[in-house]
Amino acid sequence: MHKVLVVDDEEPILELLKYNLEKGGYDVKTASDGAKGVEIAKKFQPDLVLLDIMMPKMDGVETCRLIREQPELQKTFVVFLTARSEEYSEVAAFDVGADDYITKPIKPRALMSRIGALFRRDFKKVSPSSTITIGDLVIDRTSYTIKIKDKEINLPKKEFELLYFLAQNPNKVFSREDLLQNIWGSDVYVLARTVDVHIRKVREKIGEEYISTVKGVGYKFSLN
């Protein structure tokens, strides 16, 4: 049974989502503000967090950032639910590690379908040979850990998936559209700029030498 945490300051939405998720077979907890959501997430260890953006005390973007800082929540999906459809809100959401962004009003059946697609896609990615070792870099897909010269580095879920995908295909160039399709999927609308942001963050954490930019084309994992 997958565990889902719903964080929203509107009680009717919490009740609606809790009812539909439990009916769909999920173990559900709720929180009415971001600070409480982070506190519950640390204890509950959800597989998915449904997160409103506009909330009192702590907004959804800051809540997501704090969730992504927890090593034990690196594999957790975060899906934003918001009445705001401005491009900068979407960019901010994906910049802090969101997996999807859904605008309100919420359609329960469509939402359940999107959630199911996330879990199915994640299941298909796991393979028996899930550890990649290239020089001093070790990427372990089963534990979502990265080590460079035995030093462990934590990456948020989408940054990890991006690095893992590129490392699986060394010296092959992928366009932004290729990476969006393979990492975020066709059922999630993500801006192309999001890829650039995630590449920059991965480079900041593991070093510049692993991922190269091919000007006018895209990115590749380089074997020195």
Secondary-structure topology with pairs:
Blueprint: E1 3-7, H1 11-23, E2 27-31, H2 34-44, E3 48-52, H3 60-68, E4 77-82, H4 87-95, E5 100-103, H5 108-125, E6 131-134, E7 137-140, E8 145-148, E9 151-153, H6 157-168, H7 176-184, H8 193-206, E10 211-214, E11 218-221
Parallel strand pairs: 1-2, 1-3, 3-4, 4-5
Antiparallel strand pairs: 6-7, 7-8, 8-9, 10-11
Helix pairs in contact: 2-3, 6-7, 6-8
Q: Strands across the major sheet, in which order? A: 2-1-3-4-5
Annotated CATH homologous superfamily of the largest domain: Response regulator
How many strand elements?
11
How helix-rich are the residues, as a percent range?
A: 40-55%
Entry keywords:
single chain, 224 residues, alpha/beta, Rossmann fold, Arc Repressor Mutant, subunit A, five-stranded parallel β-sheet, four-stranded antiparallel β-sheet, 8 helices, 11 strands, globular
